[in-house]
Amino acid sequence: MSSCLDTCQDSDKSRIRWYLYINAPPGGRARGVVHRLVCSVQSKSFTYLSISTTVHVVVGITGASGLRYGVRLLECLRCERTVIMSADAARLVVGETGLSKEDIESKATSRLDNDDMRAPLASGSAAFDAMVVVPCSMSTLSKVACGIGDNLITRAASVALKERRRLVLVPRETPLSAIHLENMWRLSSAGAVVMPACPAFYPSPESVDDMVDFVVGRVLDQLGLEHSLYRRWSGDYPTRSQV
Ligand SMILES: Cc1cc2nc3c(=O)[nH]c(=O)nc-3n(C[C@H](O)[C@H](O)[C@H](O)COP(=O)(O)O)c2cc1C
Q1: Does residue 174 sit in helix, strand or coil?
Q2: Which among 86, 94, 113, 139 is the best mutation to test ligand 1's pocket, defined by most ligand atoms within 8 Å of the CB?
Q3: Whose CA is nearest to atom 18 of ligand 1?
Q4: Angle of helix 152-162 versus helix 138-145 axis, rounded to 10
Q5: Ligand 1 centroid vs 137 CA: distance in angstroms?
Q6: Looking at residue 1, what is its pLDDT?
Q7: Separation CA 118–CA 156 (nearest Å)
Q8: Which of 59, 61, 65, 155 gets mutated to test ligand 1 (max ligand atoms within 8 A of its CB)?
Q9: Which residues contact 150 (CB under 8 A, 6 or more apart)?
Q10: What is the pLDDT of residues 94-132, one digit of tens each?
Q11: Number of helical H runs and strand E runs in the chain
Q12: Which structural domains are found in the chain, ordered by start?
């Protein structure tokens, strides 16, 4: 097994990242983003403190309430991120966030139309690492649970499932019918992570932003990406001064 470091510029050309490439015979090749690279010019050696193998995340945003979660996820992802918004998400987004569809799409490194079924993401050959649908409407969740791929979000989610890639669905609906619960069970059984947008109160949130950050932080946890969006439980509730 051999490894090498290489650089790559983000598609928006905003920054250069270090990647670690690991060649594992026969023919296997893994790529990870290197965090906190420490180089010694003198000994010509390097150490890295952690790597993450999630380098390209597809973010689907659908027409459920909670569009702020999707917006915040795009802001917090530091890797390549492609956004796809459904028509209903585009209709609801101004009312919920004050932002336009274009404002939100500009937070991603690339965007795709939900009706563009010829996009690379519609194929199992597409090289993305993970997909998050946030917020995920019950309509989209139900379609994915039944294997329906009638738009790019549902098709890419089906691709993620069949290719055994990370698929995280963040539904927002209450109460839940037996049909909703059964569909969630089907998805979880098939390997998806179903994590309803449920902010916790143990980190003592002081604002809606704190609650949004908790949910988004838990999504990043599922992707194995580092963050400091919420205070992890450490055995006791934080005092006011720690919050
Ligand atoms: C104001 C408003 C809020 C909605 N909130 C939710 C919601 O929280 N959860 C949900 O599953 N559907 C919600 N819906 C319904 C979806 O928008 C609707 O089922 C839509 O067809 C979803 O399509 P999409 O998954 O392609 O975005 C809401 C609709 C409106 C008009």
Answers
A1: coil
A2: 139
A3: 63
A4: 40
A5: 5
A6: 47
A7: 11
A8: 65
A9: 143
A10: 999 999 999 999 999 999 999 999 999 999 898 899 999
A11: 7, 10
A12: 2-52 (no CATH), 56-223 (3.40.50.1950)
Report the distance separating Cα 39 and Cα 96, nearest Å: 45
Whether the CB-CB separation of 64 and 171 falls below 8 Å is answered with yes
- The amino acid at residue 116 is D
Per-residue model confidence as pLDDT tens digits over 164-177: 999 999 999 999 99
Ligand 1 lining (C-beta closer than 6 Å): 62-65, 86, 88-89, 92, 137-140, 172-173
pTM value > 0.90: no
Cis peptide before 25 (omega within 30 of 0): no
Share of the chain above pLDDT 90, in %: 67
Would you call 94 helix, strand, or coil by DSSP? helix
Cα(162) to centroid of ligand 1, in Å?
26
**Tokens 């039944």 belong to which residue?**
146
pLDDT given for residue 76 in this prediction:
95
Ligand 1 atom at minimal distance to the Cα of residue 137: 11
Write the residue with the smallest CA distance to atom 19 of ligand 1: 139
Residue whose entry in the numeric block shows the structure tokens 């194995």: 224
Residue bearing the CA closest to ligand 1, atom 13: 64
